[in-house]
């Protein structure tokens, strides 16, 4: 019997649930990846033909094909509407089952349901597996069998589940070597060719200059490098100027490394007492990831609305004034150096440090009074690691509208955040060279610097660096008024 494995956000050969199950149960296993025009065309229509994620996927696909070939298989690569291509390919191959991994995003779930229905009508089975998280959907529930909506008790239950007798099962890799002989090479000469980026309508980006290596190879080398530093993670991860985090998010997004590999590594270190505090903190971040996937699964309305419905009543800034504020934030022209440097990091590299995501998001919402959904969309368009679940969770956290959010009256002060987490202005100077000569004392709020200091540093506020868009103290008061509507409802 013949089956087809449909690769999506799981671009690897090793420890791949769907591939493992397909190889175990079929004698001829074909593999396919579809460059889905439903996803890519809107980018092209918006003139966004240089997208780091598309280039990353493309290069990862080339690597995936090569790796599959080493085992006697290969990747069929198509370009078109995936929901049509998969059923057509099934017919062409005479496949009796399609294997894939669960996707939890609302649109992907709709697409998968529609494909599964088409396949069922043609007598082909749809088999889908948990792969991108350790625990999914209903696997971690409260004592009352309800989904959690607060992180800490969820995390405790998650850790307890792993410590249970069958816990190790959840971290076990899915081997393929034993069954690899069941891999089938692509059938026709046309399927032997992977379309070039240009043929897909896209251009090369600065991915290479940024030293982002796609594919399993890139993921493995980042992990190797991070494990040397994991002992310092707990402390170092908060400071954007230093190499603290793993930078693995883009690889987790596209599945060029498995979450089990990462969680198992951290869990073992925690238990063996090697770099235990760093490993524990990092594992906790991986649990946040599971948590937000679970939230999105149970509450798909968060993709458009506040998790807490009362918060949809907040009146955000609107009209031309709001557009102006928003554009200045996007361009890194707010006059608050840490916020601006953060936005420039995003615009130039597609990455933004976690601390800065919190600061920049809070600034947009609580200093500029802009609807968090605008910022969420901007991050979605620009983050290399954009993931609906984590991005939405992060934005709703910052807006205080989500589960486990900051209370609305706790408002980040962009100046003290800057003084605390970029004390000597190293990160700011990296992205805002025009401020480089200003001393550490004033680099966090240049408009408060004495005129002489500004002059000596060659800074002309309003000319080569903007004046602040708002005064934080005033903005804070306005935000408290804006959020009062929620307090009234509550
Ligand atoms: P590390 O510190 O090495 O963490 C390891 C992994 O844990 C990350 O790769 C990620 O998969 C996961 N992780 C870490 N923090 C979180 C978190 N708070 N929530 C969920 N998972 C987490 N992360 C994304 O992967 N995609 C997004 O689109 C995204 N948008 C965000 C938007 C906002 C407003 C905020 C505040 C956070 C967002 N995050 C997002 C979470 C976090 O900022 C990134 O995962 C992290 O910065 C990625 O860098 P890293 O891989 O070096 O992280």
Automatic annotation (TrEMBL):
Keywords: Chromophore, FAD, Flavoprotein, Lyase
Catalytic activity, EC: 4.1.99.3
Entry note: cofactor: Binds 1 FAD per subunit.
Catalytic activity: cyclobutadipyrimidine (in DNA) = 2 pyrimidine residues (in DNA)
UniProt superkingdom: Bacteria
First and last residue of the signal peptide: none
Gene3D superfamilies (alphabetical): 1.25.40.80, DNA Cyclobutane Dipyrimidine Photolyase, subunit A, domain 3, HUPs
GO molecular function: deoxyribodipyrimidine photo-lyase activity; DNA binding; FAD binding
Residues that bind FAD: 233, 282, 285-292, 385-387
Cofactor(s) essential for the protein: FAD; (6R)-5,10-methylene-5,6,7,8-tetrahydrofolate
Span of domain Photolyase/cryptochrome alpha/beta: 1-134
Enzyme class: lyase
Entry-linked PANTHER family: CRYPTOCHROME (PTHR11455), CRYPTOCHROME CIRCADIAN CLOCK 5 ISOFORM X1 (PTHR11455:SF9)
Protein known as: Deoxyribodipyrimidine photo-lyase
Biological source species: Collimonas arenae
